[in-house]
Specification:
Layout lengths: L1 H22 L1 H22 L13 E5 L4 H12 L3 E6 L2 H15 L4 E5 L5 H14 L5 E4 L17 H23 L3 E6 L24 H22 L5 E7 L9 H5 L2 H12 L5 H13 L9 E4 L2 E3 L8 H15 L2
Parallel strand pairs: 1-2, 1-4, 2-3, 4-5, 5-6, 6-7
Antiparallel strand pairs: 7-8
Helix pairs in contact: 3-4, 3-10, 5-6, 6-7, 7-11
Length: 339
């Protein structure tokens, strides 16, 4: 009797479902189609996985901004591969917390943090002095830290913040560590740029350092990312024959702290846009894969001065290939940092 009631109820439920499907065929078909398309877009944005297993035991790695986002995920991966990992970040408390996480997640104890504020050339010099006291070589430098679309601010040295942090701070850091990097050859320098560089034209050398005449946060960001690629290219040229190779890259669209300044403006408009955007972004780990690829993959041992995205070589914008602009940027940067 009891089983019969259950069977009857199940049959009635099945009939209701069948009728609903028949009555809403078009709507359900559209919903399924939209779902499949959205899943496809999300899968495309995430990009391919990187499965390289190369070990880097005994090698020393420095990662700026290694306390959060893709920098932290990069640190975890390289620590798992046997590297000595030094993360460089502005907030030493957050840095120490990150070190604890990296050690726990990687199983490595060879992870440390040194304070570095890329908005201060004095801090950059102090950081490199500390590195020279403790390290005899540097195998991999990953210039990962950055700021995006912030309100108009200046660095400690009077430079526009995005140009100062994203390019100038890393320019000085790299140059002051070059002796250790050359000693470790074959060694690598990885500069994290962005696809955003395609949304700007030639560098505005007239006002790029301070932007006191006119400031647009998004334009300043895209130009600073163009600087990353031009710096990588010129660095490759100057380091030819030394065994040091350079790489610039776009990590992908990632939901990290980097977008905090962009979201803080016009919140009523930008927060909903950012929410939709975040549905199709990479995780920090997925965003770190091209970092890791450029840092360790065997296929890149002889490559230098190229641009990568989704663990593959890609063509940057035409202005990013301007050798004259790369040399001019280098000369300007030398003057600004006093080299």
């Amino acid at each position: 009797m009891y089983n019969g009631v259950i069977l009857c109820a199940a049959m009635e439920y099945t009939e209701v479902v069948q009728n609903f499907v028949l009555d809403h065929t078009i709507g359900l078909s559209v919903a399924v189609s939209v779902g499949v398309v959205l899943w496809g877009i999300r899968r495309y944005v995430k990009g391919p996985r990187y499965y390289g297993k190369r070990r880097i035991d005994g090698k020393t790695v420095i990662i700026t901004g290694g306390n959060t986002g893709i920098g932290k995920e990069t640190a975890i991966d390289l620590a798992k591969r046997g590297a000595k990992v030094i993360i460089a970040c502005r907030d030493i408390t957050r840095g120490n917390n990150a070190v604890d996480d990296i050690k726990r997640l990687s199983g490595s104890t060879n992870v440390s943090v040194i304070q570095l504020d890329l908005a201060s050339l004095k801090s950059v010099r102090k950081f490199t002095e500390e590195i020279h006291k403790t390290e005899k070589r540097l195998d991999i430098l990953i210039n990962n830290a950055g700021v995006m679309a912030c309100p108009y601010m200046k660095t400690e040295d009077g430079l526009e913040m995005q140009f100062g942090v994203n390019h100038i701070g890393h320019f000085l850091l790299t140059n002051l560590l070059l002796d250790l990097i050359k000693k470790a050859a074959p060694s690598r320098i990885v500069n994290v740029s962005s696809l955003a560089h395609v949304f700007t034209g030639q560098l505005n050398f007239d006002d790029i350092a301070k932007r006191e005449k006119y400031y647009n946060a998004e334009e300043a960001y895209t130009q600073s990312k163009l600087c990353n690629i031009l710096f990588t290219n010129e660095l490759a040229s100057r380091l030819s024959g030394t065994g040091v190779t350079t790489y610039s890259l776009h990590p992908g669209a990632i939901d990290t702290e980097l977008g905090r300044h962009w979201r803080s403006k016009q919140r009523l408009i930008r927060e909903p846009i950012y929410f939709i955007y975040s549905l199709f972004t990479k995780t920090p780990y997925e965003g770190a894969l091209t970092n890791i690829y450029c840092a360790v993959d065997e296929s890149l041992d002889k490559e230098t001065g190229k641009y990568y995205s989704d663990c593959a070589e890609k063509a940057p914008s035409k202005p990013a290939l301007d050798e004259g602009a790369a040399k001019k940027l280098w000369e300007l940067s030398e003057k600004l940092v006093g080299l």
